[in-house]
Amino acid sequence: MAAGNNMEIVEHLDELRKRLIIIIGTFILSFILAFVFVQDIYSWLTRDLDTALAVLGPLDIILIYFSIAAVAALALTVPVIIFQLWLFVKPGLTPEEQRASSLYIPASFILFAGGLAFGYFIVLPLVLDFLLNLGAGTFETVFTADRYFQFILRMTVPFSVLFEMPLVVMFLTSIGAITPQGMHKNRKYAYFVIVIVSVLVSPPDFLSDILVIIPLIFLYEVSISLSKVVYKKRLKRLENEKY
């Protein structure tokens, strides 16, 4: 019995190693591809700036290019990460769970990309204009490439992660970890956590906080509605299993 368990563990570890190799290989290939076009990506990211970005030393140039290529490679690798994770857990799922969870793969990537787009095209310009107008006539603003791209990351990456909330809620509901009734009952505590998270991930100004809080509260309410749908299906499935 112990030998059988050991063999099963070895098989799981071997499968996990295979998935990790595919993910790492995809990231490396994506990084190389992104680095080939890194100057084009850089030009696109800075197309709306009226001034060239400054660097504080020659080493900063390569570090910035590496950072841009790494973020682009991660974005390209996300669908592969999600798919490989699904393939890893798939053998332990029932056919019905496999069909249901397979829908999470494209939905997860769409939400990830939607979060990036929301942060970059909506939140970033509003916050940047607000901060520049706040210091107009008082400060001479000098953009360094390092600080500017840090600002872009803070305005985009958190949204790509936080936009996954509906899928996480649906998954936790499907395994019985949470219920829509519980989410509704604890809404005020969830709102408090959302405010804290929004303040932590956004720049230290009131407008940025509001622009993060509002979509997260909306996502929480959407998550409750989706949780109700999944919860009803789960109850129906459990009822059918009794007979």
Automatic annotation (TrEMBL):
Pfam families listed in its UniProt record: TatC
Topology with respect to the bilayer: Multi-pass membrane protein
Keywords associated with the record: Cell membrane, Membrane, Protein transport, Translocation, Transmembrane, Transmembrane helix, Transport
Coiled-coil blocks: none
Spans traversing the lipid bilayer: 20-42, 62-89, 101-128, 148-177, 189-204, 210-231
Annotated GO MF terms: proton motive force dependent protein transmembrane transporter activity
InterPro entries listed in its UniProt record: TatC
Role noted for this protein: Part of the twin-arginine translocation (Tat) system that transports large folded proteins containing a characteristic twin-arginine motif in their signal peptide across membranes.
Family: Belongs to the TatC family.
Name under which the protein is recorded: Sec-independent protein translocase protein TatC
Native organism: Alkalicoccus daliensis
Gene: tatC
